[in-house]
Amino acid sequence: MAAVTLGPDELQRYARHIVLKEFGGAGQRRVKTARVAVIGAGGIGSPALQYLAAAGVGRIAVIDDDRIDPSNLQRQTLFAADDVGMPKVEAACARLAALNPHVEVTAHTARLGSENVGALLGDHEVVLDGCDNFATRLIVADYALAAHIPLVSAAVGQFEGQLAVYRGWEAEKPCYRCFVGGSPETPGASCAEDGVLGPVTGILGSLAALEVLRQIVGFGTDGAGTLLLADLLSLRFRTLALPKDPGCRWCGDASA
Ligand SMILES: [Zn+2]
After folding, report:
1. What are the tens digits of pLDDT across the range 213-248?
2. How far is 161 from 205, CA to CA, in rounded Å?
3. What is the DSSP letter of 255?
4. Cα of 20 to ligand 1 centre, how many Å?
5. How far is the centre of ligand 1, averaged over its atoms, from the C-alpha of 136 (Å)?
6. What's the gap between Cα 107 and its chain centre?
7. Which of 64, 115, 170, 215 meets the CB 3.0–4.6 Å disulfide criterion with 41?
8. pTM reported for the whole predicted model
């Protein structure tokens, strides 16, 4: 990799990262070269984008086709009251550029579908899926698997959240389909119908940003193959092993 250096203002800005021995200057320089795509600038995307931009992820693509609605402001902390009616990606880009001028944020006002998934995600090394519907999740997951792009997937509903990292092309690691199978009728609930407590999205979005940084820098223990379940009605976090399904049609032996 070409030599990447950090300027004096970056050394100052990222001092609390650089002092971490598991992260350090090498991790910070690596983050500066990273290209991350974030699907959904909503409850999960808001905090995730803020932490990724603040952390100095060099290039961030934000993909969302919604406009800001007053009902978003209870949890989507990237936006202010004056932003209501604006496309989310536009407001997000403006806020993130103000937060950290060292990162390049690209706005895509688009609904991700099978026809544009490659164009939107293909140039990225980590994908964070914080979208609000299961059909999009499957398209993203299948593309990330085929393109060998680590997928960080976070979801929330009411007082619950879940988080996992998928690298299903690897021998021992599951893909999203190992977890949900092929049926598009599994977790289809939406925040609009069922509600969600604001900070629940903040917690899962922040954890998703953490896992994106972990995929880039490689500190600590790899999260792929583990499912985190947060039950925040009772303040309980559990992690379960998420094994690869050897019979998985998408990543298992049967797919070969
Ligand atoms: Zn699989």
Report:
1. 999 999 999 999 999 999 999 999 999 999 999 999
2. 10
3. G
4. 35
5. 17
6. 15
7. 64
8. 0.95
55 residue type, one letter: A
For residue 78, how far is its CA from the centre of ligand 1 (angstroms)? Answer: 34
What's the CA-to-centroid distance between 138 and ligand 1, angstroms? 12
Task: Using the mean position of ligand 1's atoms as its centre, give its distance from the Cα of residue 255 in Å.
Answer: 9
Q: 242: CA distance to ligand 1 center in Å?
A: 10
Q: Are strands 126-129 and 35-39 parallel, antiparallel or unpaired?
A: parallel
CA distances from 195 to 43, 67, 71, 80, 190 (A): 12, 19, 11, 20, 8
3-state class (DSSP) for residue 141: helix
Amino acid at 156: V
Report d(CA 112, CA 120) in Å as an integer.
Answer: 8
Distance 6 CA to ligand 1 centre (A): 39
Cα 12 to averaged position of ligand 1 atoms, centre (Å): 43
> How much of the chain is in helix, strand and coil states, percent to nearest 5?
40, 20, 40
Ligand 1 centroid – CA 244 distance (Å): 6
The DSSP code sequence of 229-245 is EEETTTTEEEEEE----
122, burial (CB in 10 Å: exposed 0-12, middle 13-18, buried 19+): exposed
CA of 204 to the centre of ligand 1 (A): 23
What is the per-residue pLDDT across 140-165, written as a single tens digit (0 to 9) for each? Answer: 999 999 999 999 999 999 999 999 99
* Side-chain half-sphere exposure of 254, counting CA atoms within 13 A: 9
Q: What is the pLDDT of residue 132?
A: 86
- Write out the two tokens for 247: 């019979």
Cα 164 to ligand 1 centre (Å): 13
Q: Cα(108) to centroid of ligand 1, in Å? A: 29
